[in-house]
Amino acid sequence: MPHRDLRLIIQAALALAHLFLPLLLLFRRRGRRRDYVPLVLYCVLSAVWGLGVALAAQGSNQVSWQLVYIADYVRTDLPVLLAALLVSIGCKSLDRRDHWAWGTAGITWSVVTFGSHLLTRSDAAAARSVTMIAQVGWLVFSCLVIILSARWTLRAPLAFYRNRGIYWLGLLGPLLAGQALALVQDRWGEIVLVPHFLGTTGVTICALANYLPNIKSFLRSVASNMVLAVATALLYALGLVIIQPLFWMGAGLHVPVIGATVVAIVLGLIHHPFHRLIGRIVNRLLWGKGYDPAWIVRDYGRIIGNVLDLEQLATVVVGTISEVLEIQRGALLVITKTEGPVTLRVIEGMGQITRREITLAPASPILLHLTMRGEHFFQYDLDYHRDLQEASYSEKEELRSLDMEIYLPILARERLLGVLVLGPHGKGEPYGSQEVALLATLAQQTAVALQNAYLFGNLRALNAEITQLNEDLRTAYERLKKLDQAKTDFLSIASHELRTPLTVIQGYTDVLTEIAADHSLTPEHAIGITTNLKAGVERLAAVVTAIIDASEIEVKAIDIHRASTTLSAVMATAVGPWREAFEKRHISLTPQGIDDIPPIEADFQRLSQAFGNIISNAIKYTPDGGQVSIEASMVDQEHFEVVIADTGVGIAPEDQPLIFEKFYRVGDLLLHSTGDAKFKGAGPGLGLHIAQGVIEAHGGRIWVESEGYDEERCPGSAFHVLLPLRAGSPVSERRQSDEDKADQRE
Ligand code: ADP
User: Concatenated DSSP letters for 429-461?
Assistant: First the structure.
């Protein structure tokens, strides 16, 4: 076979060999195949370009000259696209998303130069210019891929990405060198295609491999072995130098033989310690301070065995590991919810970690990897591991935001308790297999401590719950005690409230009978006696009505007769009976905004009664010369609020929830007087209960705000009444409204 034919066959074979690489990619690699589109395209186009290079190198001796022309254009124009695709593959491999733009730019540039070449075929000068444009294009994309790759590699936050970047940069050498040679020379078919094919194979292998050996560590091992070899060689050379004079002395054979034997024994004896010493020095210089895994595991177990608090555990665990591996960040992710999506709480151990929770779907590949396989993974694996890269984007992002490098499961009897997450290695290199094995052992040891901390945490929570329950019970007990007292008081109040007017009535009827019997009853007497009798009967009727109203409220049988009215009319009726009391006690009354409230629909009588009760209290619990204000305002389109505030004695916070209960009255029963407007002249303890019942029956709410009870300072109280413009059925049950009020107080 002629030499030229053989070359053509070899070159064509090299070109076509590029086509095997995409097959490898498609069949060896499961998962997101579309990730490899730029690489597959690169391999296929490299084959086409390689054929172009091979044919162009042969000249028109073997093939038609048209084909050689086309092949030559392929040789010069396709590298632009190939270089642009390299930018695109670089973006993909370093997980950047702007890869399509570069591919498209390369295609455009290539198509334009190829088209121009076809058009300017007959014009050699024009064709040369087009070739130059193609060369410039190639130069632009080549520089771009080198600069961008170097930048991404230097800036990569995690060592695995940096390591991948170093490989990528190394492989760019043969790839770009091959393309550059083809661009400047059309005769170097093999020289062009061999490095290019090797480079493309390297890139394909990188894409297929999850882990690429740590280059720095490899170089360090080589250097360390070289130093050891040289040091050992020097030692033996020294031995030879020492025994050499014995051979020259000419004192017979036995002297050099004995001397050589002695030197050999000495060398044999010191070889091992010498080797170890040099090894230790070299390792110290190249790898830094070493550590003994057995000691670390023992110490670690001892230290974390005493920790019972989760937060403290995270600090101790990460702190201990950081002493060995010089990491700067780390945390414990502890499982807080296992039903449905699994929730992991992030407990910071070291470094600033802002995220507080991570949620993983029950079928998340990440969760399965940690639980089923019980294996660690790297942040880098989320992009490159064939199973983990299937995890949802949000889960990956949540983990990415932690800014960690390695995730180690903490399992107890195949149940995932948590995950130990650690930031990048202190030396800025990927974690080595020995370090990972050590970390996996430490993570496993953490399981017992984590279980203890869980149990302790649960116990503490239970304790807090019991304390809270005790507190609630105590509050309920206090409340019941006060209500019970109120009921006992009621007997005295009721008997007093009813007996006082009854005694009055009884007294006057006796007087009436006596005067009538001795015929001395004058019309003046009759008028005086009946007036007093009427007052007593009215008071009696008022107390009985209040008791009936209260019982109606109790069974929610209070009748509301809605009719159109105005708030000012209601207020006028409510204030009316108390005008005299206001004057007598020198208490000023300032109404505000009442007339601004639009007409309302309500039970006029009931609402007046409710406001009357609140206003009478304001008078009763405000010292002479005080102030009472009634302020009305719209809250929204359908609701208005009335605030009745006084400058009185105020109400203690613990009494505020109770004053709306029936028969509840604050303070000493003996201070009680028969419902007049005297200062602190309490009634039967029904006024506010009735007011609340009426207001809630209108669909409103009432609550009180007061700093507390102080007769000296008189902080005052403000009763808030919120009502709808059109009275409806109560918005909520009484219980609910009580809860609301309790919330407000909080
Ligand atoms: P009473 O008929 O005793 O006034 P209420 O139900 O009207 O009963 O009021 C219950 C308790 O609430 C009163 O005993 C009083 O201690 C307290 N109270 C009501 N309004 C005021 C107020 N404006 N200032 C201070 N305390 C008040």
Answer: SPPPHHHHHHHHHHHHHHHHHHHHHHHHHHHHH
- The Cα 318–Cα 349 span in angstroms is 6
Question: What does the block give as tokens for 690?
Answer: 């009735």
* 657 in contact with ligand 1, CB cutoff 6 A: no
Which DSSP helix (H) or strand (E) runs through 636? none
Tell me the CA distances in angstroms from 516 to 507, 513, 530, one per residue in order. 14, 5, 13
- For 589-644, give the DSSP string: EEEESGGGSPPEEE-HHHHHHHHHHHHHHHHHTS-TT-EEEEEEEE-SSSEEEEEE
List, for residues 93-137, the tens digit of each pLDDT value.
665 666 677 778 888 888 888 888 888 877 888 888 888 888 888
Host H or E run for residue 379:
none
Q: Give the helix/strand (H/E) hosting 354.
A: none
Q: Give the residue-averaged pLDDT of 583-607.
A: 92
**Rounded distance, CA 13 to CA 482, Å?**
101
Task: Report phi then psi at 183, rounded to 5.
Answer: -70, -35
Whole-angstrom Cα distance, residue 212 to residue 429?
A: 12
681 CA distance to ligand 1 middle (Å) = 9
Signed CA dihedral, 6, 12, 13, 14: sign only: positive
741 CA → ligand 1 middle, Å = 17
Secondary structure of 654-721 as H, E, C letters:
CCCCCCCCCCCCCCCHHHCCCCCCCCCCCCCCCHHHHHHHHHHHCCCEEEEEECCCCCCCCCCEEEEE
Any idea which residue has 């009305």 for tokens?
632
Atom of ligand 1 nearest to the CA of 644: 23
- Map 288-338 to HEC letters: CCCCCHHHHHHHHHHHHHCCCCHHHHHHHHHHHHHHHHCCCCEEEEEEEEC
For 15-52, the DSSP string reads HHHTTHHHHHHHHH--S-GGGGHHHHHHHHHHHHHHHH
Query: Which amino acid, residue 454?
Result: Y
3-class state of residue 639 by DSSP: strand
Give per-residue pLDDT as tens, 355-389. 788 899 888 999 888 888 888 998 888 877 777 87
Rounded CA separation 413/686 (Å): 65
CA 511 to chain centre: 85
Which ligand 1 atom is nearest residue 719's CA? 23
- Whole-number Å distance, alpha carbon 664 to ligand 1 midpoint, is 8
Count other C-beta atoms under 10 Å from residue 132's C-beta: 12
**Assign residue 593 a region: left if phi > 0, alpha if psi is -120 to 50, beta otherwise?**
left
Place of tokens 């790759």: 149
Query: Token digits for 48?
Result: 């086409």
Using one digit for the tens of pLDDT, what is the confidence trace for 681-735?
666 778 898 899 999 989 999 999 999 998 888 999 999 999 999 876 444 443 3
